[in-house]
Amino acid sequence: MKIYYSQSWEDIEVIIKALQINGSDIVLAITSSGDNIFGILLKEPKIIYAVDKNPCQNALFELKIKSIELLEYEEFLQISGIKVSKNINKIFEKIIPNLSQFTKNLFQKNKRFLRKGFLNIGKFENYILFINKFFLPFFISKGKIGKMFLFKNIKKQREYYYKKWRKDLYPLIFKLFFNEKLLRFLGRDPEYFKYLNKINMAEYYYKKAENLFLKSPVKDNFYLNYILTGKYNFAFPSYYLRENFFKLKTLLNRIKIINSDILSFLKNTENVFTKFYLSDIFEGETLDYFKNTFAEIINKSKKGAKFIYFNHFLDRIPENKKIKIYKNIQLENINRTFFYREIITGEIL
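User: That's the sequence. What structure does it adopt?
Assistant: Structure tokens below.
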């Protein structure tokens, strides 16, 4: 087991808009890095069950929770990696006594990973940092990247992209590092490629990323900020903002972390849910597992329960009279990421 993602790469604004979280909601969410669960928590649901079959992902989330609970804001920015710090190990010592044994052992054995902050310890994030350190600066300057995040006018941003980026070596470098083989072995969880048919992944990602440069304001896109610079220096995820940090401190007791795959959890829980954030978990699962999971979701949902998940390159869409699937043109238009082919949302009838 390892930490594959230390950040979340599905747009939190898309998730919030799709689920329409309110104070009475009982939410079932895939943990992953935990970042999007914090985003959901800021909408103050009644409770969130954070479920992940990878205990290392849950351990990372526990570390983040305890960092918010026990640290001052400046200390949190340091241990997260937002701010460069030589004091991360000292800050970590404040948290250790309050961690579960598994989480304590995981991070005490791997303290060197925490030196760069918990935002940067995932397999995918390390791949992004590797590209930023050893390759990207030789093909596109920091100045060109920085300027892209300064435009307030989409037309000028688009013109700059065509003149300074598209004619440069950026397209070649992008397609090289976002091709399937490199992502499979160096960037993402190999399980997510298990059932994948042959597809030009690099070309697909490139076109989706280009669409972001041409049609949406880059200055507010913290996903692109990290991918292009290896840090957050122009835009920030919502839960790293000071006011949200202190709000989260008051809401952390609404989170319950569960070590389980989602199907097993649904079969064994007596809870009934109103909202489901399912991330992209079906990419690495069989079609039968997908169908059985949605059968259990129907059984464990209140009428009108909403769900969202993301298809990478597999077609995983439930076919059931008790499920209504929505068209998601609006969500696609506001999406600030490029890693997924489809956003699937719907309602339990």
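Residues 131 and 273 are 41 Å apart (CA to CA).
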